[in-house]
Amino acid sequence: MLKWIDMPPVWLAGFLALGWGQATYFPMGLRLGSGWVDFAGGMLVGAGLLVTRSSLRG
Fold first, then answer.
1. Cα–Cα nearest to 53, from 14, 23, 13, 17
2. What's the CA gap between 19 and 38, in Å, rounded?
3. Are the CB atoms for 9 and 56 separated by under 8 Å?
4. pLDDT in tens, the chain (58 residues)
5. Whole-angstrom Cα distance, residue 4 to residue 8?
6. Most exposed among 2, 13, 22, 46, judged by the fewest C-beta atoms under 10 Å?
7. What is the rounded distance in angstroms from the CA atom of residue 19 to the CA atom of residue 28?
């Protein structure tokens, strides 16, 4: 069990689930701007996931 906890994809999945749960059940009403800001944020998250996946491949 401790071997699995120390893996970055496990941390990533855990924090993604935590962020989804917080946004769904405890929204803080944080809005940074219009729709393009949300789009840019989504693109940055997607880029981060691609970089994480590419680093796992070697």
1. 13
2. 15
3. yes
4. 667 667 777 888 888 898 888 888 877 766 667 778 878 888 988 898 888 888 877 6
5. 9
6. 2
7. 12
pLDDT of residue 2: 66
User: Which residues, 6+ apart, have CB-to-CB distance to 52 below 8 Å?
Assistant: 8, 9, 12
Query: What is the per-residue pLDDT for 17?
Result: 92
pLDDT score, position 22: 85
Structure tokens at 47: 């880029």
The structural domains of the chain, with segments of one domain joined by +, span 2-57
Question: Do residues 48 and 55 lie in contact, with contact meaning Cβ atoms separated by under 8 Å?
Answer: no
